[in-house]
Specification:
Largest sheet: 5 strands, antiparallel
Strand content: 15-25%
Protein name: PpiC domain-containing protein
Organism: Steroidobacter agaridevorans
Pfam families: Rotamase_2
Number of helices: 10
Shape: elongated
Low-confidence stretches: 1-52
GO molecular function, one term: peptidyl-prolyl cis-trans isomerase activity
Number of strands: 8
Mean pLDDT: 81
Order of helices and strands: EHHEHHHHEHEHHEEHEE
Length: 288
């Protein structure tokens, strides 16, 4: 619930939830590489059946792409970019290789209709041949330095938004913030939202790059009319919280586990890639 703003009196009854500063790209999560993504993996039975005449041919076509994009958009609220779509394709291909290997090894016995279980049975066999890397402090430290963005707390921004009732055209918002800054009574009422500890990436996701740049360069304590990807907003920057570099010694345990997970994931990927060499991979009609 938002408070009501009238004149120059602005009070808040709600505080927007802060977004954690740590942000890890989903494509880098070790376990995600082998997670089955809803319709992406359960909606391709007809495709598999159509390739039954050539068990060593794997074809990824527009149908699979469409299902992947639909699953991603349902989970993320947006369409995947080119890099994310490429990662989704790789997930599908890896799982298809594991599925074929599982069938070849008879892992579908008593479980013929459940593709997910066949894939995970095949993956468990791949995992049985992976080896946990021995701890190497120097290697872990070097990996930490290369991946600092995963652990450093970025610069964050505290700000307020006056949510105007009714139309929020550029002229209306500019008139509103002008009245607030001059101490006069605006002609429209508004609710107040307060945001704390929002990093740059979150500002871009929520409002757009142009807005993030404008807010970050605005003087603290002054209301501004700023354009977002969904329209004009009345915003006031309250404070900038400095970035905090991560301390390896404090995070040694967490970093070591992340490093181990990444190396184990690389072993899995390499093992699946080796299995994939026996198959003819075709993407959009083009042999890879």
């Amino acid at each position: 619930m938002s408070s009501v703003l009238s004149g120059s009196e602005l009070s808040s009854t709600s505080n927007a939830t802060a977004v954690p500063a740590k942000r890890v790209k989903w494509t880098r999560e070790p376990l995600f590489h082998f997670i089955l993504i809803g319709a992406l993996l359960f909606g391709v039975d007809s495709l598999i059946a159509g390739q039954a005449d050539d068990p060593n041919r794997i074809e990824l076509d527009r149908q699979v792409d469409a299902e992947a994009q639909q699953a991603f958009e349902a989970a993320r609220g947006r369409k995947p970019d080119a890099a994310e779509l490429k990662a989704l394709r790789q997930v599908w291909l890896d799982n298809e290789v594991l599925y074929r290997e599982g069938l070849a090894l008879g892992l579908d016995k008593g479980d013929k209709s459940i593709r997910e279980r066949v894939i995970f049975k095949a993956l468990s066999m791949v995992d049985s041949n992976t080896k946990r890397p021995a701890f190497d402090d120097k290697a872990v430290r070097e990996w930490f330095e290369k991946n600092r963005a995963r652990y450093d707390i970025p610069q964050r921004f505290n700000f307020q938004e006056a949510v105007l009732s009714g139309e929020a055209s550029e002229a209306t918002v500019r008139s509103f913030v002008s009245a607030l800054n001059s101490g006069t009574t605006p002609e429209v009422q508004a609710g107040l939202r307060v945001f704390t500890d929002r990093p740059h990436a979150n500002l871009v996701d929520s409002y757009g790059e142009e807005f993030a740049t404008a807010l970050e360069s605005a003087p603290a304590g002054e209301w501004r009319a700023l354009q977002t990807k969904s329209g004009w907003r009345a915003m006031r920057l309250d404070a900038v919280v400095p970035a905090e570099p991560a301390d390896y010694e404090q995070l040694r345990g967490v970093v070591t586990q992340d490093w181990t997970d990444v190396l184990m994931s690389e072993q899995r990927s390499a093992a699946v890639a080796a299995l994939a060499k026996k198959y003819t991979i075709v993407i959009d009609g083009v042999k890879q």
